[in-house]
Each structure stands twice: as C-alpha cells, then as structure tokens.
Design brief:
Layout (H helix, E strand, L loop, with lengths): L21 E4 L2 E8 L20 E5 L15 E10 L7 E6 L2 E2 L1 E6 L2 E6 L6 E4 L8 E10 L12 E2 L3 E6 L2 E13 L4 E12 L5 E11 L2 E12 L3 E12 L15 E9 L2 E10 L4 E4 L2 E4 L2 E2 L20 H13 L4 E2 L8 H10 L2 E5 L14 H14 L5 E8 L10 H15 L4 E6 L16 E5 L3 H12 L3 E6 L15 H8 L5 E4 L7 E2 L15 E2 L12 H10 L2 E7 L7 E8 L14 E7 L5 E8 L10 E6 L6 E7 L5 E8 L7 E8 L2 E7 L6 E8 L2 E4 L7 E4 L9 E10 L2 E2 L6 E4 L9 E7 L2 E6 L5 E9 L7 E5 L4 E4 L8 E9 L11 E3 L1
Parallel strand pairs: 23-24, 24-25, 25-26, 26-27, 27-28, 28-29
Antiparallel strand pairs: 1-12, 2-3, 2-4, 4-10, 5-9, 5-12, 6-11, 7-8, 7-10, 13-14, 14-17, 15-16, 15-18, 18-19, 20-21, 21-22, 30-31, 32-33, 33-36, 34-35, 34-37, 37-38, 39-40, 40-43, 41-42, 41-44, 44-45, 44-46, 47-48, 48-51, 49-50, 49-52, 52-53
Helix pairs in contact: 1-2, 3-4
Length: 841
C-alpha cells in the first residue's frame, strides 16, 4: 500500500553532516512495526512514501522480545529511520555497518533494495554509495526475521548490536590478520601481518602502507612498503613479517594476558587516508603427546559454557554484562572453554583477550540439521566470515564446525561435512585447533571426531566412563566441552549440583585434559525436554550457577572450590587472643583438573571490625607452585582483635580464586522489613546483615518452637500444615555463621488468611527509560500487575501484563526515584497480596 511521504528528523549524537573518514552512529530510536502476516514486502513498506507515524519505536541496539507486547513474537518485523549526507561526499565510499541483526534481514535505502544477510550472529556491511541521495534526507528500511533457532536457546529478535555509517575514500583498508608465533627455545617471535585493502575507484592507486607494532603504547617495530592497489579490487593483500627479539617478547597467557597492537596506515599522495588498529597476543597452544600445552607448559583447564544473554538486556550484550560475566568467570578459575555455541561479538572477545580466557568460536549447527551437508553454502560462509572477523584475538584458540551432529542416522552426510569444514578452517588459519563437538565419540566407531585435533565431548551422566570409551575408541585426548546432569533451580538457595562427585569421576585420567560444564548462567527458553530437563514456567532455564539476573546460587560456591587452582585452604591453630593463625595451602595433583604452574599468585588475609567490614589487609606473594607440590604452611598474624578472618588466594590479575572465612563473632541482628500471609504459606522478608552466611526463621505458638530450613536468600517462605487459618503465630529471624547464631530480630505476629502469596521479586534494573522487573512465575498464574510512582507508598501508575518471569515498565523518568510493588492474579481470577515496596533510584 502506498502512503503519503512523511519527513522524519532524528537528533544525532553529533553533526548529521558527514565528512570523509567519519562514522555516524545510527543507534537510538527507530520506527518499528511487526508483520505477522508477512505483507510488508508486497505492500512496499520500504517505500519512501510509507507513513511511519503510525509505527511504534524500538531501541537500536535492542531486542524486541524485551518489550511486553512483543515478548514472544517470532516472525518479520520492520525497522526504519533517516539520515542526511552532504553533497561534498559524492565520490566517497559510504558503508552501512551492522554488528549483528538476528537472524535474517533485507535492507532498502530510499526504497531500493541493497542486499540481504542470513547469519545473525556475525557483523556485515553494505556499500550504499550508489543508493544515497546527496544533500537530502535518506531512508533506511530493514525487515528482520527471528524464526531461525538453535537448540534450547531463545531466538532474540532485532537489530541487537550497534549500527553506523562509515565514510572513507574509495581506496581503503579492509582488515589485517596478524599471526604471531613464539620460538619457545630462543624466546623470539615471528609476527606476520597480512594487510587487505580495496579500491572501488576506476583507477590504479599508488600508495604506501605504514605498519607500526606497539607494546603498552611503546613502538617496538615499524615498516613502510610501497604498493599499487588495482582498480575495482575488493581484497588486495600484502604481507610483512618481522622477528621480534627476546627483549620485546611477552607471551600471552591466562594469568599474564600480554597484548600488542598493530596499526596500519594507508598513505595516498603523502597524506594518511585511512587507518585501522588491532590487538594481538603472542602465544602457542598445541596438543603434544596427548597433553595440552600453552607456551610449552602443560595445562589442564576448566571453564564454563555461557549463554550470552540475560533477561534484562536480552542478547544485546552491553559492556557491563560482558565485564560482569567475564570477571565472575575469572574468579571461578576459568582458563579455557567453549564460551558459547553462538559466536560472540568483538567486545566480548576483546575482554577475554584482556583477561586471559581461551575459547573456541563455533558454527552453530546442532542436532539433526539440514546444514550438515558439504554442498550447503551457509556453513561455509559462516565459517569463513567467522575466521576473517575473529582472527586476531589471542583468546580464540580454536574453531568448532558444529555441535552434536555426529550420528549418520540424523545427518547422513556428517562425515563429509566435518572433513571438508575442518580442512577449510585449516586452510584459512593454520595456527589454531579445529574441532567438532561430539556427543557420539564414546558410542560409535568411526565418528567424525577423527577429523578433530582433540575430542570435544558432551555428556550428561556417566562422565568418566564416557571419556574413557571415547579415548579407547579414537586414541585422542578428551576435553569435556559440556557436562551436567539435570536442571538445578532458579532459586539461588535451592540450587545444588553434585559437582564434587562429577569432578571426582573425571579427575586422575591423563587423557581427560579439562572440563567445561553447561552452564554458567540461566537463560531464557521454552524448551520442554524430558523429566529433569523441562524449563520452568518463568522461561528461565536453570542450568546455571548464577540465575539470569546474575545472583549467585549455592552451586556457585560449590563450583568455585572445585575449580580453584589450588585444592584447598585450611585454617588452623587460631590464637586464643585472635591475632594469629596457621594457614595451609594444598596444591593440585599432577593429573588433577584444573592443574597448571602458578606464578605470582598471592595469599591475602583480611581482618574484620566489629561490624564485619574489612579493617586490615595483608598479603604475601607465593613462590611458584607446581602440580604435585607438597602443602605450603604459612603463619599469619594481625594487629588487633578481629571479629572475623578472610583468607584468599588471588591470581596475578587480582582475582580472588579461592577463599575461606572464619568468624570469631556471631552476625549482627537482622531486621524484618515485610511479611505476607496466605493460605499457602507465610513469607518473611528481612534485611541481610554483615557477618552472616545463612538465615533461618523461628516461629512459635503457645511456647512451642519450630524452625525453617536455612537459606542464603533475603526471605523465607513457611508452608507448615500445622499453621491453621485464623491462627496467630510469632515469627523472628536469625542470622548465622561458623561462630554461631545472632540475636533474633524483633518478633512479629501474623495470622494465616485466605490470600495468595505475591510473586518473589528477584531483581529490578533501569534500562534506558524503562525499568525491568524479574519475578517468580507459577503454572497457575493468570497475569501480573505493577503499581508504581515517584514517592513511597504513592502509586499513580498501573500496568498489567502476562509476561512470564520478566516484564518491562516503559516511559520512566531517569532522574527521579521509582517505588513499585507487584501482585499476581491467579488463573481463577483471584488477586494475591501486594509484594513489598521496591525502591529504584
């Protein structure tokens, strides 16, 4: 349908007049409209005459699934916005760059189709120079489809990563690939820089390429080369190699992630016309004699699979999400894993580079998959684009060509596919491992794992025997790339994983090099699965040791002990006056998991004041620790009597990778801040206090006392059949630690009634001009209601929604506090009590 032309003016983050060698940020609010009946293309919604005033707005970058009204929408959705290009830019190259659009999209500029992309996790760009109206407003229109899905992971839809326009001369740099190989005997390094440029002009261009290598901002190598870039060339390559002397070589390692930078400048007519810079590391990871060697030393690594998303920001992955996740992984002792089935963005890999975590990037084939076919072009495009994009990251130590695709009954062409894909990857990158992730290597011979550099094995039970069978069948070392048993729980207090039993089943096997459980975090899903694998009603699939809001579960602390680089810390011989202790550090065994040489690790001890805040801190750098070393005994002293002692091992980057706390005093007294009464239970909410490890509630009637289970949460729900309707009971909360139990909170009296309990509010967060709220969902929930306002107890706004687990409150002022409360209406229409009031500053 044709509609009248409406002029749209957008306020840009900087001048809307573009000049050469500039980027124009196109993030922000775009016009948005869903297209469930797929009529947009036939009705020409891309036409410049379309009336966009009736469309809604959508954040870019963002996921439409984060909005209540589109929470479960799958299908086509349209995006539109405008930009202005000055007349002076005629003759320049203008590209539109998308970091990620999930998953399939088509692009129009000013009503003319530019192109399509069908690989939603990878960046792409189009040259739109010939589509632009210079000196006029221009319209960008995209149709995006998110139906493509892999496994149990949510198919978040939208323009999920940043977008920009890039203006350069017609001759420009495309990318560089830096291959840095150390000579471990001599201490030198061979650095090869492949420089790829393009020329969209109609003439050959004489130019100079200037290469500069820097370490910590200091130039350590520089070179210039003359070249002629032919007309109409897309990928013109030149190479330069330099051997760095021993004095200039600092290897990249998981504990010492040393980084270099290579900056390329294209010079035309003695003037710089384009430049690019990439970081790289010098390291060597290889499988030698059945061992995994990093820079010539054996490692036996641990890691986690991460589903790169949360329920607050979807899979847009803002830097705060990346940093928080990676920092927690470092505290968990992570050194190597397949971080994700799904390719992760440059910013994520940049942070892995900086922090020293090795990973495998993957072409996300899974299960029975029509793409498991050597003749299908899509996985080849995926692999080649992935390697081109991510080549320089030292954190990427291997490429995976698929996941759990190995049974010929499901994928008849799997052997030919894996063989061809591995060969292709090795032709594009001769320095990294290439694998396929198998769930069949322990049960069939032959298996496509014969083409892998090592066996990456996924198993959910019988872990040690499965690894042994895979080793016996294929005589290749094994890395347990996924393992687990059944889902745990989305409630942090109820999450328990028998990780100690799992690890003991896998440790001590020389051929089993390392492990990476599924998963670090809970993630959104509606995957049904067999018993024990069914996703809860909240859509928070609870494999993780942190929930989707990144609250640490009990299992987090269990894993931290099992994955620590030393076996344990033991505190003994504490002086009666409380100012000295003997600390014993027990190293890992040679065939333990994890195991590696520890250099520049520290033992730190902190004393606490009467309020359990850290008062004084001390540290000692440990001598090198090798797997199999004898226990290390250290006498620790401090100056003043303390209420507690915390001893921790920290790595060279300052991450606390194992800790032990001894309290000398009981915790502070807790305070009850809210209570709810209902026919199905009584809920007590309290303020957490310093010095506490757990909490419990004592409830009583007529001098008879009863006790709840202990919890790490800030609430206790009691559903005791002996508490009858209309009965009055007394409740009080205790905090506890390893020194004992606190004084009780002040008592409150509650009477059980016929109400319903409100949902538990797990988390709230401001996201732009919205507030996102996460809460429990039960099978008999009908819908949810939030009241909110800008003053305590005064709620002048109300919204109702059916979203499971998470909902969004839009249009909230960013500069004023918000106070809200939540309730649920059950499927028979009855409304619960309101939750406690939540203050959001």
């Amino acid at each position: 349908m044709k509609r009248k032309l409406i002029t749209l003016i957008f306020t840009l983050t900087f001048s809307s007049v573009l000049t050469a060698n500039e980027k124009l940020d196109l993030n922000g609010k775009w016009n948005f409209k869903t297209d469930p009946y797929r009529v947009g293309e036939s009705d020409e919604w891309f036409s410049s005459e379309t009336d966009y005033t009736c469309w809604n707005e959508m954040d870019v970058p963002g996921n439409w699934d984060l909005y209540n009204e589109y929470s479960e929408y799958a299908g086509d959705a349209w995006y539109n916005r405008s930009f202005f290009v000055d007349e002076s830019l005629k003759g320049q190259s203008i590209r539109i760059v998308f970091q990620s659009v999930y998953n399939d999209c088509k692009l129009w500029i000013n009503g003319r189709k530019v192109g399509e992309n069908h690989l939603g996790f990878l960046p792409f760009h189009f040259d739109i120079s010939e589509f632009v109206n210079y000196g006029m407003e221009n319209h960008i229109t995209l149709v995006v489809n998110n139906v493509f899905k892999r496994g149990a992971i949510w198919n978040w839809g939208g323009i999920r990563r940043p977008v920009w326009l890039e203006i350069t001369n017609p001759t420009r740099l495309e990318y560089q690939h830096i291959t840095a190989i150390p000579d471990l005997k001599r201490g030198t390094a061979n650095v090869n820089v492949k420089i790829v440029s393009s020329n969209s002009s109609g003439i050959d261009v004489s130019a100079t390429l200037e290469i500069e290598i820097q370490r910590r901002g200091e130039r350590i190598a520089k070179h210039q080369m003359k070249t002629v870039i032919p007309a109409y060339t897309q990928d013109f390559a030149e190479t330069w190699t330099v051997i760095l002397p021993k004095s200039k070589v600092e290897l990249w390692h998981t504990d010492f992630p040393n980084l270099y930078a290579s900056t390329i400048t294209l010079i035309e007519e003695n003037q710089p016309s384009h430049s690019l810079s990439d970081r790289f590391g010098i390291r060597k990871l290889e499988v030698v004699g059945g061992k995994l060697m990093l820079n010539g030393e054996e490692i036996r690594p641990v890691g986690f699979n991460v589903v790169p998303e949360d329920r607050m920001t979807g899979n847009t992955l803002p830097m705060e999400r990346i940093r928080e996740d990676v920092d927690m992984l470092k505290e968990l002792g992570v050194t190597m894993c397949r971080i994700s089935h799904l390719p992760i963005p440059k910013e994520y890999l940049d942070y892995l580079d900086e922090k020293g975590i090795m990973t495998f990037e993957e072409v996300s084939l899974w299960g029975k998959d029509q793409w498991v076919d050597p003749e299908n072009p899509m996985p080849k495009q995926w692999l080649s684009r992935m390697i081109r994009e991510k080549y320089n990251h030292p954190s990427v130590v291997g490429w995976s060509v698929g996941n759990e695709i190995g049974f010929p009954t499901a994928n008849p062409k799997v052997f030919d596919y894996v063989k061809g894909a591995v060969e292709m990857a090795k032709s594009l990158d001769k320095t990294r491992l290439v694998v396929y992730i198998s769930h069949s290597a322990d049960s069939q011979m032959p298996d496509p794992v014969e083409y892998s550099d090592l066996i990456m094995l996924n198993k959910y039970g019988n872990w040690g025997n499965a690894a042994q069978k895979a080793w016996e069948l294929h005589q290749k070392p094994v890395f347990m790339s996924e393992f687990g048993n059944v889902l745990n729980h989305e409630d942090p207090n109820l999450s328990h994983i028998e990780i100690s039993r799992m690890m003991e089943d896998m440790r001590g096997r020389e051929y089993l090099l390392g492990v990476s459980p599924w998963t670090f975090n809970d993630y959104r899903s509606t995957y049904y699965g067999r018993e024990g694998w069914a996703t809860p009603v909240s859509q928070n699939r609870c494999w993780g040791i942190v929930n989707t809001f990144r609250q640490k579960k009990r299992s987090y602390y269990e894993f931290k002990k099992e994955f620590a680089p030393v076996k344990r810390i033991h505190i003994s011989e504490i002086n009666e006056s409380g100012n000295s202790a003997l600390v014993t550090i027990i190293p890992r065994d040679k065939t333990d998991i994890p195991a590696k040489i520890l250099r520049a690790y520290k033992v730190c001890w902190h004393t606490m004041d009467e309020d359990f805040n850290i008062r004084d801190s001390y540290e000692k750098t440990l001598a090198e620790i090798y797997p199999g070393d004898e226990p290390i005994n250290l006498n620790m002293t401090w100056n003043k009597k303390a209420s507690g002692l915390k001893v921790e091992i920290s790595d060279p980057q300052g991450y606390s990778v194992l800790d032990e706390v001894i309290y000398f005093n009981v915790p502070l007294q807790p305070e009850i801040i809210h209570a709810s009464t209902a026919h199905n239970g009584m809920r007590i909410i309290y303020q957490p206090v310093n010095g506490s490890m757990e909490y419990f509630v004592r409830y009583s009637q007529n001098g008879n006392f009863f006790y709840s289970d202990t919890t790490i949460n800030n609430f206790v729900t009691i559903n005791d059949n002996q508490i009858k309707l209309k009965d009055k009971w007394e409740f009080e909360v205790f905090a506890m630690n390893n020194a004992g139990v606190s004084d009780p909170s002040e008592k409150i009296e509650l009477i059980k009634d016929e109400d319903e309990l409100p949902p538990i509010i797990w988390a709230t967060r401001r996201v732009g001009e919205s507030i996102v709220i996460g809460y429990t969902s039960l099978p008999d929930d009908y819908l949810y209601e939030v009241e909110y306002g800008n003053s305590p107890g005064q709620y002048d706004k109300n919204i109702i929604f059916k979203n499971r687990g998470v909902a969004r409150i839009p249009g909230v002022q960013t500069s004023v506090p918000v106070y809200l409360r939540l309730r649920v209406r059950k499927q028979w229409g009855f409304a619960s009590e309101w939750s406690q009031e939540i203050e959001i500053l």
